[in-house]
Amino acid sequence: MTSVVVDGVELPETLIAQEIQNHPSRSAAEARSAAAHALAIRALLIHRGQQLDLKPEPEVDALGREETFEEALARTVLEVELSVTTPDHAECLRLYESQPDKFRTPALTEASHILLDVAADDPADEAAAKALASELIAQLRDNRARFVDLAKAHSVCPSGATAGGSLGQLRPGDLVREVETVLAKLAPGEVASEPVRSRFGWHVLRLDRRIEGRQLPFDLVEDRIRLHLESRAWTAAATRYVADLAAEARAQGVAVSLCEDGRIREGSLTLGEILEPAMAGARIEPWLRAVDPEFLQQVTTAAEAANLPLVEFVQDTVATFLAEASDEDWTKLISAARGGADPALAGLAALLRQKVAPNKPRFTIIRRA
Predict the structure, then answer these.
(1) How far is the C-alpha of 193 from the C-alpha of 179, rounded, in Å?
(2) Three-class SS of residue 258?
(3) Domain 108-211 carries which CATH code?
(4) Do 223 and 83 form a contact (C-beta atoms < 8 A)?
(5) Is the N end or the C end of the chain the one with fewer CB atoms within 10 Å?
(6) Which residues are bridge partners to 266 per DSSP?
(7) CB 31 within 8 A of CB 20
(8) Residues of each domain in the chain carrying CATH 3.10.50.40
(9) In sequence order, which ranges of the chain are alpha helices (DSSP H)?
(10) How far is CA 353 from CA 47, 245, 283, 287, 348, in A?
């Protein structure tokens, strides 16, 4: 099984490939990274829930979908471990007064149009529709009251026959950008001086009325502000909590392993334990003497050259790796240790080999004629 390490969690590549579909991104690399981090966070939360011996009750959403036990466990960990203070009246008021534009009703526009259809890929029809739109605008310059009659006679929009071209009250975003841009420049009662082209055809536009947004009273929005602040504080607290879990896992090495079937188990390479002097002295020296005495002599010689006892030399090697290793370094170490009867000792041996006998750079010799 091919696996990688992310935030102190060993993840099978097969699960990352399955998770990618839930993380649409600008590139495949970004999607893969997001999927791997999501799986790592979920594994850390589930592992923490197991440590706390939580017994969650799966919830059912509005569509009748029930959480899996693992989803419920991850959610419950955050509910149990996080504590967020409910914002008081003064805090809500400060936000209201500092960002008044966020608490206004949207501006409304009342407008009318005459829509002239255009046959697809027909330059002649395109020109004829634009010419007719220009002619209608010229007629309206002489008599704006004719707008209703002209809309009923020429507009292909249902509003022409039913409402004389009136589109009613409109919020920002209700109309296509080209039409909204022109209406924003008109005064109430004014007809646009030029026809406007959109994907629907040619428009003759008239602004009927503009209703500016109004400030909402604080009492009306206080509960909404409180919910927003509490949600923001909870998100920040959850982000910090997960970051702390990941930092703790990375400090141990590979603290958690996610199996292909979704189960969580203790990590296979928790090198942090070997930092204990008793652990290092009691395990690494006899192990190396049994499996590779020649390499043990190389390590001993390197320790003497560094003027350190063997145990301290091993500890220094591990501590440096733990402080500096990236997820990619851990992934390589797992590959080096895979198959060993004791993965932690096999991983440690790989670290010592890098320090005592690092790979020599390879050179290509080019023979010149």
Answers:
(1) 13
(2) strand
(3) 3.10.50.40
(4) no
(5) C
(6) 256
(7) yes
(8) 108-211
(9) 13-19, 28-51, 69-81, 89-98, 123-142, 147-154, 158-163, 177-183, 218-252, 277-291, 293-305, 310-324, 327-337, 343-356
(10) 32, 30, 17, 15, 9
Question: Tokens 């040619």, residue?
Answer: 202
**Token digits of residue 154:** 């020429």
For the record, the structure tokens of 342 come out as 């004791």
**Count of Cβ atoms closer than 10 Å to residue 75 Cβ:** 16
- DSSP calls for 91-143: HHHHHHHH-GGGGBPPPEEEEEEEEE---TT-HHHHHHHHHHHHHHHHHHHH-
Q: Average pLDDT per run of 10 along the chain, which is 369 residues long?
A: 82 90 90 92 93 91 88 93 93 95 92 92 91 94 90 94 93 93 94 95 95 93 96 95 90 79 72 56 72 84 88 82 80 72 72 72 43
The tokens for 217 are 């009273």
d(CA 221, CA 206): 35
Report CA 266 to chain centroid distance, whole Å: 27
